[in-house]
Amino acid sequence: MKAKAVIPREQANRDVDEAVAHYLSEAGEAVAFGFIDALEKAYTHIGRHPSTGSPRYAHELHLPSLRAWPLTRYPYLMFYVERPDHIDVWRVLHEQRDIPDWMREPDTV
Fold first, then answer.
1. Residue of 60, 53, 56, 61 whose CA lies nearest to 78
2. What pLDDT, on the 0 to 100 scale, is given for residue 102?
3. Is the separation of the CB atoms in 35 and 71 below 8 Å?
4. Is the pLDDT of residue 107 over 70?
Protein backbone atom coordinates (compact mmCIF):
# COMPACT_ATOMS: atom_id res chain seq x y z
CA MET A 1 0.00 0.00 0.00
CA LYS A 2 1.32 3.39 -1.01
CA ALA A 3 1.46 6.11 1.66
CA LYS A 4 -1.01 8.95 1.30
CA ALA A 5 0.09 12.56 1.31
CA VAL A 6 -0.41 14.26 4.66
CA ILE A 7 -1.76 17.79 4.23
CA PRO A 8 -2.13 19.98 7.31
CA ARG A 9 -4.79 22.68 7.29
CA GLU A 10 -3.82 26.27 8.04
CA GLN A 11 -5.07 25.93 11.63
CA ALA A 12 -2.94 22.81 12.16
CA ASN A 13 0.11 24.73 10.93
CA ARG A 14 -0.69 27.54 13.39
CA ASP A 15 -1.00 24.97 16.20
CA VAL A 16 2.44 23.60 15.32
CA ASP A 17 3.97 27.09 15.11
CA GLU A 18 2.60 27.91 18.58
CA ALA A 19 3.95 24.67 20.05
CA VAL A 20 7.39 25.20 18.52
CA ALA A 21 7.50 28.80 19.78
CA HIS A 22 6.53 27.58 23.26
CA TYR A 23 9.24 24.91 23.29
CA LEU A 24 11.84 27.35 21.97
CA SER A 25 11.09 29.88 24.71
CA GLU A 26 10.58 27.42 27.57
CA ALA A 27 12.81 24.43 26.81
CA GLY A 28 15.29 25.32 24.07
CA GLU A 29 16.12 24.34 20.52
CA ALA A 30 16.72 20.65 21.15
CA VAL A 31 13.23 20.16 22.57
CA ALA A 32 11.63 22.24 19.80
CA PHE A 33 13.45 20.23 17.13
CA GLY A 34 12.43 17.03 18.93
CA PHE A 35 8.81 18.14 18.67
CA ILE A 36 9.21 18.70 14.92
CA ASP A 37 10.80 15.25 14.55
CA ALA A 38 7.94 13.65 16.50
CA LEU A 39 5.43 15.47 14.29
CA GLU A 40 7.16 14.28 11.11
CA LYS A 41 7.18 10.69 12.41
CA ALA A 42 3.46 10.98 13.19
CA TYR A 43 2.79 12.31 9.67
CA THR A 44 4.71 9.38 8.19
CA HIS A 45 2.81 6.90 10.34
CA ILE A 46 -0.68 8.16 9.55
CA GLY A 47 0.20 8.47 5.86
CA ARG A 48 0.96 4.74 5.85
CA HIS A 49 -1.57 3.56 8.44
CA PRO A 50 -4.42 6.10 8.70
CA SER A 51 -6.88 3.73 10.32
CA THR A 52 -4.67 3.23 13.40
CA GLY A 53 -5.61 6.61 14.90
CA SER A 54 -8.06 6.64 17.78
CA PRO A 55 -11.71 7.46 16.99
CA ARG A 56 -12.21 8.55 20.64
CA TYR A 57 -13.39 12.10 19.86
CA ALA A 58 -15.35 11.22 16.69
CA HIS A 59 -18.62 10.47 18.49
CA GLU A 60 -18.47 13.44 20.86
CA LEU A 61 -17.76 15.85 18.00
CA HIS A 62 -20.22 14.20 15.58
CA LEU A 63 -17.40 13.64 13.09
CA PRO A 64 -17.45 9.88 12.43
CA SER A 65 -14.26 9.83 10.36
CA LEU A 66 -12.15 11.91 12.78
CA ARG A 67 -9.08 10.18 14.18
CA ALA A 68 -6.39 11.24 16.66
CA TRP A 69 -2.76 10.16 16.84
CA PRO A 70 -0.42 11.01 19.75
CA LEU A 71 3.04 12.44 19.20
CA THR A 72 5.80 10.34 20.72
CA ARG A 73 7.33 11.92 23.86
CA TYR A 74 5.21 15.08 23.54
CA PRO A 75 1.75 15.68 25.04
CA TYR A 76 0.11 16.53 21.71
CA LEU A 77 -2.59 14.87 19.64
CA MET A 78 -2.87 15.22 15.89
CA PHE A 79 -6.47 15.21 14.63
CA TYR A 80 -7.09 14.11 11.07
CA VAL A 81 -9.53 12.68 8.56
CA GLU A 82 -8.61 10.18 5.88
CA ARG A 83 -9.65 11.31 2.42
CA PRO A 84 -9.53 9.13 -0.73
CA ASP A 85 -6.25 10.66 -1.90
CA HIS A 86 -4.69 12.26 1.21
CA ILE A 87 -4.76 12.69 4.98
CA ASP A 88 -6.41 15.96 6.05
CA VAL A 89 -4.81 17.15 9.32
CA TRP A 90 -7.22 19.45 11.13
CA ARG A 91 -5.45 20.32 14.40
CA VAL A 92 -2.40 19.53 16.53
CA LEU A 93 -3.48 20.15 20.13
CA HIS A 94 -2.01 19.73 23.59
CA GLU A 95 -3.79 16.79 25.16
CA GLN A 96 -4.66 18.76 28.33
CA ARG A 97 -6.85 21.22 26.42
CA ASP A 98 -10.62 20.97 26.21
CA ILE A 99 -10.43 19.14 22.88
CA PRO A 100 -14.10 19.47 21.83
CA ASP A 101 -14.01 23.23 22.43
CA TRP A 102 -10.69 23.67 20.58
CA MET A 103 -11.82 21.59 17.62
CA ARG A 104 -14.62 24.00 16.74
CA GLU A 105 -14.14 26.23 13.75
CA PRO A 106 -13.03 29.73 14.86
CA ASP A 107 -16.21 31.39 13.56
CA THR A 108 -18.47 29.07 15.60
CA VAL A 109 -16.90 29.78 18.98
1. 53
2. 63
3. yes
4. no
Mean pLDDT of 85-103: 87
Using the predicted structure, report yes or no on whether residue 93 has a pLDDT greater than 90: yes
- Partnered with residue 56 across adjacent β-strands are none
In DSSP notation, 68-91 reads: EEEPTTSSEEEEEEE-SSEEEEEE
Q: What is the mean pLDDT of the chain?
A: 91
What span, in angstroms and rounded, lies between the C-alpha atoms of 81 and 6?
10
Nearest to 81 by CA among 106, 55, 105: 55
Alpha helix (H) residue ranges in 4-55: 10-26, 29-48
Q: How far apart are CA 34 and CA 73, in angstroms?
A: 9
CB 100, CB 60: distance < 8 Å = yes
